[in-house]
Amino acid sequence: MTSEVSSEDIDLVTNLINEKLRGQFPHVSSNDRCIFRVPKELRRVNEKAYEPRIIAIGPYHHGKEHLIAMVEHKIRYLLRFLQRRNENDVSRYVQIIEGLEERARRCYAEPLHLTKDAFIEMMLLGGCFIVEFIWKLIECEQDPVIGSEHVLGRLMLDLLLLENQLPFFIFSELLVNSNVRGTQNRPAESNFIKIISFYYESFLPGPGYHPDLNNVYTPEEIIEIKNLLGLLRDHWKPSPERMAAYQEEKGNVKRFTRCATELREAEIKLKSVEGFNLFDINFERGIIKIPKIKIADKTECVFRNAIAYEQLTSLKNPYFTDYMIFMDNLIDSA
Q1: Matching InterPro entries, A to Z (predicted)?
Q2: In this model, does residue 26 exceed pLDDT 90?
């Protein structure tokens, strides 16, 4: 004999389960998600490549003991951010970030358990720190954070890590609402993008594609920028000619590159070339021409985070990933 279940009981259970589902899986479009935790299968080879060492930006590493020392500098940078604008009250910027809170939360692929106030404070301190950090670089302002070349290099690398990102619209809103200076022909957001691209140029282990430095980003283009890592990955893209050829090749059946030994046996030569975009690999008259790559301490970290970003966002043109697959196949058993 089975007991009858009332409609009230069913409604109660339904509501309880739905509340739990909403708490764990809030309504988020896959297009909103742009900041991820790196999966274990990617981390296990070199976990340190994804971990910040100096500063936490965003929620994933927020509050970690070895990163707490930078909180004092974030507050100091916020004060300087206000002083540049002859302001002494942060309430206007708190309201701006509060209006962006839900949109910002949707950018993170993992559930976030920070309170509303803690989340807004974290976004504001992180956003103002990066904006002020860029202006300090421009003005060569004396500062403990950027006074050491080693600390500066590591800090800039921390700001590129996939797990250590803020949505780019946080910077856009801070720039627009703080009336930060632009130039006569380039608004503040475009100027900010240009400066970031310039200072991070050396982080790519080889020449990148250099778009017109006078290019002014349209509002539509700025909206498409997801975060700093995404911005710089796009800045380092292949040249337009190479991108067109790349997209055409992607439509064909994927073929794997033979290793160097097999290529030599087939009388195909390898030649390193200078002054070309890193991704401009060409095959001409039996010769594979590969641009020289300059390996530095930060190279692995940059590549691993760019590849993780491509894998997790399912980009149509994962050129960092394909470049590493090509090089891995070439070197394998060479």
Answers
A1: DUF247_pln
A2: no
